[in-house]
Write a structure and sequence with these properties.
This protein has 209 residues and is α/β, with parallel strands linked by helices. Helices cover 50% and strands 13% of the residues. The chain has ten helices and five strands; from the N terminus they run E-H-E-H-E-H-E-H-E-H-H-H-H-H-H.
C-alpha cells in the first residue's frame, strides 16, 4: 500500500479524501495534518510514501520550506494539491523537488492516479502545462518575462497582493526589509509597471495571485 499524508487547512478536504480512498486497492490515508508545523512530526511518526500538501497551508511561508522537507525526508514524494494557478506555480513546485502538481478542481480519480505514478518515481505535470511551457520557451524574452519570476519573487508578490507591507513580508520570510524592497523593484520591472496598484492588478490578470 502507498501510505499518504494529507496536509490541508480544511477538514472537508481531509474527510473527502479519506472517504474516497477508503477502499482503494493501492492507497491508504495514513495521516492528516492541518498546518505546516505538524508535517515534520507526521513524517517522522509514520512511514509516509506520499505527502499531499496545499501551498496555502497554514504556517507554510515559502516553497523553500517544502524544499527543506524533501531534503530531510528524501523517501517521501510530494504532490502539491492547490487552487493556485498551475501554469504559474507548478513549474516552481517541480523545481523545488515536488513530484507532481494537481489543481483542486481536478477529480479525485486524477489525484489517485498521480499518487500511484509519483510513488513509482514519475514526475507528473498536467499535459496542458507541459504544452504551455514548451510554447513559453519559444517566446522572445519580453513576452515571457512574467513567466520567469523566481519562487521568491512570486512569494513576495503574493504577500504584496494581500496588502502586506515590506517590513511585514520581511518578518514572514525571515529576510531583510531592504531585500524585500529589491524584490519589489524587480517585480515592477519584470511586469512592466510603475506602482504597487498596477503591479497587483497585473499579477491578478496573469493569474499569478
Amino acid at each position: 500500500m502507498i501510505n499518504v499524508c494529507i496536509a490541508d487547512n480544511f477538514p472537508v478536504v481531509h474527510f473527502g479524501m479519506k472517504a474516497y480512498f477508503k477502499d482503494h486497492p493501492e492507497i491508504s490515508i495514513a495521516s492528516n495534518v492541518g498546518n505546516f508545523f505538524m508535517v515534520s512530526d507526521a513524517l517522522r511518526n509514520k512511514e509516509i510514501d506520499v505527502l499531499i500538501i496545499d501551498l496555502e497551508l497554514e504556517g507554510l511561508k515559502s516553497i523553500y520550506e517544502i524544499k527543506s522537507i524533501i531534503k530531510i525526508f528524501p523517501k517521501t514524494k510530494v504532490i502539491v494539491f492547490s487552487s493556485l494557478s498551475e501554469n504559474i506555480y507548478a513549474p516552481n513546485a517541480i523545481k523545488a523537488g515536488c513530484a507532481g502538481y494537481v489543481h483542486k478542481t481536478s477529480k479525485l480519480e486524477n489525484l489517485g492516479a498521480t499518487i500511484v505514478k509519483v510513488s513509482q518515481g514519475q514526475i507528473i505535470l498536467n499535459e496542458d502545462i507541459k504544452r504551455n511551457l514548451a510554447l513559453i520557451a519559444k517566446q522572445n524574452k519580453s513576452e515571457r518575462l512574467y513567466r520567469k519570476l523566481s519562487n521568491r519573487e512570486i512569494e513576495v508578490l503574493r504577500f504584496l497582493s494581500d496588502g502586506k507591507k515590506n517590513n511585514e513580508i520581511a518578518k514572514i520570510l525571515s529576510l531583510n526589509e531592504k531585500t524585500i524592497s529589491t524584490y519589489k523593484l524587480r517585480l515592477l520591472t519584470k511586469l512592466n509597471v510603475t506602482n504597487l496598484v498596477d503591479l497587483v492588478n497585473k499579477a491578478k490578470t496573469l493569474e499569478i495571485v
